[in-house]
Amino acid sequence: MKHQLTWIVISLVMLCSCSSDSENSDVGSDARITMILSVSGQGDNGYNDLITQSIMRFYNHHEVSLSMQHPYSLGEAKELVKRWLALQSDKKELLVLSADYVELADSEIRTLADNQKVLLFEAKANDKRPEGVSTFYIQRYGAAYLSGCIASPHQEATIVAAMPGSNIIEDAIQGFADGYVKGGNRAEVFYLAEDASGYAMADSAYRYTSNLDGQFVFPLAGGSNNGIYKSSRETLFSTMLVVGMDVDCGAYSGRIPFSVVVHIDQIVEEYLNEWAQSGKMKRHETYGLESGMVEVVLSDYFAEFSYIWEDYYRDYYYWENALKRYSDEAKEKEVVYENR
């Protein structure tokens, strides 16, 4: 009974209708998108919510059926993928898979029917994937390197990550660490968990970072980042600073001088519009600093709180000057890293 209720509440199914907002019906009313949401779920005020917003914007402007499904485990997600692959349909079918499911997709999706296409997030290029599977990867090394350079005058830095082994996380860890050594120090790394549960451990992230007085924190923990932002707001008499992640987080805390902003919503819409217009999507694309789809954005609020304790904060223009100083270098380093 509990499982059935889960599907009633969580599975959002919107059948196509004659929407007054529909502007681009080129995809045709015989098309259907099935989106399998991240296991860690929505409500992270960042990455996952941006994806959902982009899907809904597309839906509101196209006559297309949409099913958004939220599994509670990788096993449940696997069954959903198998069910979609076996589906007998005359519609144009598009399966959209979040970054949680790269390994699952590579193990389960061997062939596709002529009417089936797959969009897989955050997967590095792989020629072994079948025709009809489109992928993109957001390379965060450059933005993380730039963040590390900006943070390098700070004496201590800690990278709080959801889990080990993820390409997304490990690229960003390496980038921040490489940039941060400019100050002659080494960034520590702390993993919240050994698996994807680390993306949904805001309470643990809160408790851990509440003890990081004086640290510059670089968060790579998805929804758990909200616990870090909360800690930075509520821990008094601390010199801890935090980098915002995925969206401009300046309003979340006065201790966020800048954010790494990822425009995944724009990327997703770009792929969906391509599918709508031609029935096809590009095979693969990597987006880094040069693309503008990932960038470092200064907070509009931090200057109000920069009365602080470290000498380099006293320069009102430090953050802006550091961002300009290291931006080109970060782009160059990212190219070298990507081609290594």
Kindly describe this structure:
By secondary structure, the protein is of the alpha/beta class. It has 2 domains: 2-138 and 264-290, Rossmann fold (3-Layer(aba) Sandwich), CATH 3.40.50; 141-259 and 306-338, 3-Layer(aba) Sandwich (Rossmann fold), CATH 3.40.50.2300. The chain contains 10 helices and 14 strands. The strands form 3 sheets. A 7-stranded mixed beta sheet has the order 1-3-2-4-5-6-13. Helix 5 (141-151) packs antiparallel against helix 10 (318-338). The protein is elongated. 46% of the residues are buried.
Short description:
With 340 residues, the protein is an alpha/beta fold. It contains ten helices and 14 strands.
Helix content: 25-40%
Low-confidence stretches: 1-25
**Distance separating the two termini:** 52 Å
CATH class call of the largest domain: Alpha Beta
Count, helices: 10
Instruction: Give me the strand/helix succession.
Output: HEEHEHEHEEHEHEHEHEEEHEEH
The fourth-level CATH homologous superfamily of the largest domain is Response regulator
The amount of beta strand, in percent, is 15-25%
Number of domains: 2
Query: Quick check: average pLDDT?
Result: 87
Shape: elongated
List how many beta strands DSSP finds.
Answer: 14
What characterizes the major β-sheet?
A: 7 strands, mixed
CATH topology (fold) name of the largest domain? Rossmann fold
- Specify Rg, calculated over alpha carbons: 21 Å
Protein structure class: alpha/beta
